[in-house]
Amino acid sequence: MEQKELRQLLKDVANNKIEVEEALLKIKEEPFEDLDFAKIDHHRAIRQGIAEVIYGAGKTPEQIVKIAEAMQKKGQKTILITRMSKEAAVYAQDKLSDFQYDELSKVAIAGKLPKPDGQGKIVVATGGTSDMPVAEEAAKTAEAFGNEVVRLYDVGVAGLHRLTRHMDEIMSANVIIAIAGMEGALASVIGGLADCPVIAVPTSVGYGAAFGGLSALLSMLNSCASGVSVVNIDNGYGAAYQASMINHMGQV
Amino acid sequence: MEQKELRQLLKDVANNKIEVEEALLKIKEEPFEDLDFAKIDHHRAIRQGIAEVIYGAGKTPEQIVKIAEAMQKKGQKTILITRMSKEAAVYAQDKLSDFQYDELSKVAIAGKLPKPDGQGKIVVATGGTSDMPVAEEAAKTAEAFGNEVVRLYDVGVAGLHRLTRHMDEIMSANVIIAIAGMEGALASVIGGLADCPVIAVPTSVGYGAAFGGLSALLSMLNSCASGVSVVNIDNGYGAAYQASMINHMGQV
Amino acid sequence: MEQKELRQLLKDVANNKIEVEEALLKIKEEPFEDLDFAKIDHHRAIRQGIAEVIYGAGKTPEQIVKIAEAMQKKGQKTILITRMSKEAAVYAQDKLSDFQYDELSKVAIAGKLPKPDGQGKIVVATGGTSDMPVAEEAAKTAEAFGNEVVRLYDVGVAGLHRLTRHMDEIMSANVIIAIAGMEGALASVIGGLADCPVIAVPTSVGYGAAFGGLSALLSMLNSCASGVSVVNIDNGYGAAYQASMINHMGQV
Amino acid sequence: MEQKELRQLLKDVANNKIEVEEALLKIKEEPFEDLDFAKIDHHRAIRQGIAEVIYGAGKTPEQIVKIAEAMQKKGQKTILITRMSKEAAVYAQDKLSDFQYDELSKVAIAGKLPKPDGQGKIVVATGGTSDMPVAEEAAKTAEAFGNEVVRLYDVGVAGLHRLTRHMDEIMSANVIIAIAGMEGALASVIGGLADCPVIAVPTSVGYGAAFGGLSALLSMLNSCASGVSVVNIDNGYGAAYQASMINHMGQV
Amino acid sequence: MEQKELRQLLKDVANNKIEVEEALLKIKEEPFEDLDFAKIDHHRAIRQGIAEVIYGAGKTPEQIVKIAEAMQKKGQKTILITRMSKEAAVYAQDKLSDFQYDELSKVAIAGKLPKPDGQGKIVVATGGTSDMPVAEEAAKTAEAFGNEVVRLYDVGVAGLHRLTRHMDEIMSANVIIAIAGMEGALASVIGGLADCPVIAVPTSVGYGAAFGGLSALLSMLNSCASGVSVVNIDNGYGAAYQASMINHMGQV
Amino acid sequence: MEQKELRQLLKDVANNKIEVEEALLKIKEEPFEDLDFAKIDHHRAIRQGIAEVIYGAGKTPEQIVKIAEAMQKKGQKTILITRMSKEAAVYAQDKLSDFQYDELSKVAIAGKLPKPDGQGKIVVATGGTSDMPVAEEAAKTAEAFGNEVVRLYDVGVAGLHRLTRHMDEIMSANVIIAIAGMEGALASVIGGLADCPVIAVPTSVGYGAAFGGLSALLSMLNSCASGVSVVNIDNGYGAAYQASMINHMGQV
Amino acid sequence: MEQKELRQLLKDVANNKIEVEEALLKIKEEPFEDLDFAKIDHHRAIRQGIAEVIYGAGKTPEQIVKIAEAMQKKGQKTILITRMSKEAAVYAQDKLSDFQYDELSKVAIAGKLPKPDGQGKIVVATGGTSDMPVAEEAAKTAEAFGNEVVRLYDVGVAGLHRLTRHMDEIMSANVIIAIAGMEGALASVIGGLADCPVIAVPTSVGYGAAFGGLSALLSMLNSCASGVSVVNIDNGYGAAYQASMINHMGQV
Amino acid sequence: MEQKELRQLLKDVANNKIEVEEALLKIKEEPFEDLDFAKIDHHRAIRQGIAEVIYGAGKTPEQIVKIAEAMQKKGQKTILITRMSKEAAVYAQDKLSDFQYDELSKVAIAGKLPKPDGQGKIVVATGGTSDMPVAEEAAKTAEAFGNEVVRLYDVGVAGLHRLTRHMDEIMSANVIIAIAGMEGALASVIGGLADCPVIAVPTSVGYGAAFGGLSALLSMLNSCASGVSVVNIDNGYGAAYQASMINHMGQV
Q: Which of B160, B215, B218 sits opposite C189 (nearest CB)?
């Protein structure tokens, strides 16, 4: 309940248009609801076209489709489904309109992508080709949230020229998502080159002492470059969510 | 070397105003210099007034003062010194002009703070009072980089009302730095309430199974709230650096 | 051997109704037996109707059924079987009377649930829907031990209003079992809101730096809220066992 | 704000005894205040005499004394100060009335201990004499919260008879706090003998592969005995807080 | 080459019965051979009847059988095969004489068990029934090496009477192998009761914070009881090997 | 209470020399005492001369001396004090008779060393000279328990000849205590050479990835040599205790 | 772009053979290219015959074959494919000329092995037969890079004579690759015997406290022998790559 | 004992110039001595002038000086002392001739540095100035072993141009020692640029999630660049030892 609603309610009480007990119930039942809607308003009512998100892991194909259908019925134009199994995608294929599935990243989009309306570009860079599933989760998420995305894949630091060849893209980015497994050095090198926030995503790519992404995670947290923050291992979605927030700064 | 300088150099070669060997030397010696200056330009030449930074840890009082004096000689108006020992501060006291030292956070400022010129406010929130050293490092860094800072200290989740009482500050922030030790739950709760990027800083506050900040670090990386990224344990400076970048988005 | 039995035995010796050597043997052979029966007496003989428990993991379907049948033959009215595979449940289906199996939590009940006879209610709360298997193990265990259970699922801290909407249930609980994976912040937030013992159960829900429940476990151990204790990862049964003990405090 | 206050406020609005804007302000400013007071009411207003707590670690002697004096001025009869340095105790000695300090556990009590009013006894048991600092923190906390405490120190499992000799105390306890470092087996053995909730406290006692309490912590979390939950390493206070809650179950 | 052989060789050189170059070759080629045979002599030539061992893991059924056949051809009466897959056992069944396979422990014996010739008995005790695969590996290994074995299974510390009921076996053992997963407390409790060397074997039984046996391993290493040493997780064979050595002390 | 005492007590009851209630009390109060004395009997009453042990860590100089004096008063001829600070030793110097202190290992002996009465020799071997404090704790403990000790220090595997030069001592040992930090390879190499039980002691010697002894500990647990078991990091006392047990096998 | 090319380009500009803008483009587009080719030149153009490498993990059979075919078309005589699945090998079998696949190490060679042209021999030694997959990856890689390889398999330190019997090979090696799992002691022992660089490869062979190679990794990093460095767990390829570099030292 | 000595000894036996028993003793006492001397010969007898090494940690000033004096008496021209405390250096100052001490790296040289006689240069590069203590240990060790050393300090990857400006030194190195703490990315970037073996040294520089060098260690082990191997945290000496071996390849 927003402030003006509450003020109206109190006026109605003052004018005896509503019973005290009924007003009491309304206030008591929604003390936090307001926060909730406040948040949704800020985020969605004003910036039309942004995607709703379904986290597909641990949901049955039927559950996913049911939720998505409900969203589409409410007029939602773009629905992003992450961590969706191929089996679920096959099931959803002809039940959801404008459905597209990317097997590599396990990301699906139901509906049309919104037009990019951020301040600038989000660069998604990876150390190797094996990091692509995470990178595509990030890139597709960013697109579904209304961002222009530039993909720089396989620009790992062992072949520095592959990265520096793309200095233009790096210098013109508004936010960079740096994705790497193994030693995760990409985040530090990009953090040193770029002049914008870098969100680092460690991946579970590697073997042995990579310990499922721990090595890259620690590397990125200890980055000697300023302006680098880190999200969970393999969390392309989370990085893109924050990158989109940053890229829409100053917009209402 | 920027593109227009290189073009001029080549023209001079074409016009025989400069020897081939001399040009060769110039190009060879500075292939990366350009990147470097490019970065400095973006970041500093245009946005006047931002602070230079000295990382005080591991430097002698003499070294710190010498570096700061050189900066002031070059006309630098604000110098931020982090992780400065009290002993170094005492030494610097009357050697650097406009010198102020905060013993709690071990942060010193030499010179005047710039006027805030960011898009909005940066909220620095902590779970407890023991997190204040890290929080003040973050707050003072943000101020030195030209940001308006709102401090919300001791709003930990075990007394939720202390936090929710400040919903206005939280909803009006442009970036939030959430600082907590022990179980680090503050980042998730703020991440759920706020509608802006949250940069989480785990602290080494706690004992036993806190394992020097590991508990809070893992908590924050696994945050169930979207829009949260994490920096190293106790790294208030790093969080403020990125927060300032975000808060100056869209400005040149 | 309880005290009165021992006293009788000694009287019989004094009255020469029994040989010294025979008495010697009796005492020597059962020095610890008494503890054992004492425990069972306290727990079961007096509070009729409580369930016997079979830990199904690592037992064959045949073994489980055989044990349960023996219990039923001895007059046991309620048998709780935890961590029971679907395959074992199918096998047991028509061999055990009043058999019910919940595939999600892998918990089965053979016989009728006892009427709740605890002091108050046990609230079982989870951070997300993925924590439900553990939560149902806890809830069904608590019910089988004679407790009234209130389920509050998916009230994670990233959407605080979902939790605070249930303040009434939380304030009226006698014991709360707080179940969460990922960053495990639920335990701290509930611990801060509630005024009763909170038993926290970390779950292995999550990925990457969740490290199989380690993140939630450390979080919960470091809870800044008072009145929170912790059991093993995914140990819904253990939490419910202790919660039931607490909820039956003061009863004989 | 409690429900009846809110009802009265609305009635006042309906009767125009109070302005709409003023009512708006009142409601808006205290949405969470109610939770807070609700909690305090439950816990303290009704059960008079319980101690207020000051966590001494990281506070200056002056800060501690100032807080305690304020509490005493408000009529608080018992104040518990944990993790208080000897230096702080010396400073507080003649400033706080009825001040007693225990150097071993770093616990101080200002004021008189309340009379025990719990349902039964809390047994505090330790594996060795080195666990005594943690045990005394637990025991003194429990006493300050109005519990009768039975101390069973140095009853580690390597000399089982030392423990079993105290079967009477163990069987008659209402709650047991089992405190041990090294391999932490005490919790399991007591958990197997007793018929009441056991709260286990791992301690940092030990060396080498004890890893600062990690060994005991893992042991206790994996206890094969039912009815055991665990708090943070060396957290005697936390264990006593929950034990006291349990021991006052069913009381208002 | 043993000392007396070397002396003889040198005498032959002195007597010119053998060429210098030939002697040189003999000495050079076997400097370590002697150690090897020395060891085998001590262990096997004198104490007839002990088993040869094949570590089955990572070997094909064909390889195992071929090695065993070669051993039998050389007159080996007992062959112990550990970590043998069921598939390999089926293959070996009618190719090796007197072949017996235990599926639970994956141990096979080809040939007849030697008569026990140790000083006393080896007790193999486990905390639970789930530890039986490791326990049987230990027990069968000990038997194959000529020891009388007493099995005490499922005597975990949560039901202390189950263990203490067997005080006679424990007090009369020459060596005890204590096998437990989860919190591994069995080793400490037995170490405290017994008066002989205890070799502790942590097992990977358990879940969550058992971390694949780490919890039990640390517990056992930190045992507060004297006379306890530890082998690798699930290493029943290793414990039995050393136990057999100890049980044959003083024999040649 | 031993069996014959209990038999006598029962006879007294039968003969009415003692009241039933008095007998009841006697039996009830000492049900575990018997185990205790049984153990002491086996270990001490028969094998005269063995040392009593005081674990000095965490005890004040006064406490140590008081305990030792009490032991000497009871006629104890040898008292072993481990982990005794230099300060405590200075204090004890002229209060305890025949007092000798070794600063390196922090071990003191009060009284005379018993004559070796084990079956054979215990070899104490170390990888480097830095392992000597642990080694001397082991060696002095073994001597205090009546064993002949052979010291082989600084025979680490990086200079294999230093070790193999001592093949005679190794082959003639009854038990070997292998002590090493860093990579802990000594245990495996000795385990491969020797034909007797090897008890491995990892030490905290080393830096960096030695992680306080973890590296050596894991190495030793994973030893590819048979017949090796392991005790806690730096636990020279524990290794010697078990080694002495083994070396006195078969003796009463 | 190498220095002489750049000089020529500038001369062409001076001579107006090339336009300024065209020269600008050439320089700008390849600032790092030069580094790249420089590297390839050093490594390949001069030392003809060395293998190109394809890392097969995570690539489809089709992708591998396509890359290899392209290489062969460009005249590459030897192609090394590591971590190639059997399925991929079957697919590649008749598509690539001179194709050979080793199932154990998952290494394939397409084309002819180059003649060894290193300074000396590379010895590949393993602790056990289970380390052979890693060892063969190392050995085949070394051969594909033009080295003579000596294989010493199953020379683990538990049977020291197996290793020392090969002192000649060890002393005559130019580089040694020491491969071992479990306790990884082989690296230290070889490092102590040999007089050349030793590259240690921990393997994931083992169970329990081997923790997937962690034990061997830490051991090798802490080696008390000088001249030992370490690569990632199971990284036979990486060890061979560096060994080959060392073995070709001083060659152009 | 080398082969020719052994041959001569046997000839003497054959010619009866020496008694059988005396020859027996000689052979028996030195079976491994030969390996030892063999090694020293290769390494030292032929390449005159190389330094002897004393590891100063854990040795008293007196011990260090005594060992060094003995070495100088034997004619050793250069003695390298690592990890030497300032206190020890002050003590040694005027007792050892040509003594020089570097407080930063705790390295001392007694005597004159040998003339560089390696094949090429060893580059010692660090990520930051805080890594200098480790770097100087490496550099001084390399010089003491007869290598020309090029120092590239503070060339961390966050300012890539600082590193690439030194491409000439990097490309002309024979071996590179890459030293870095925090995220340790330097090793990968240099490994990607250089065409020679890179030995990576993680340092304990950093805080929080650097975990005492663990982050850099894992990074370097997982390097995506080929030709990189790793030594223990802070082990500058070890890296230099192997680098010197490589740099003297092919020399006798």
A: B160
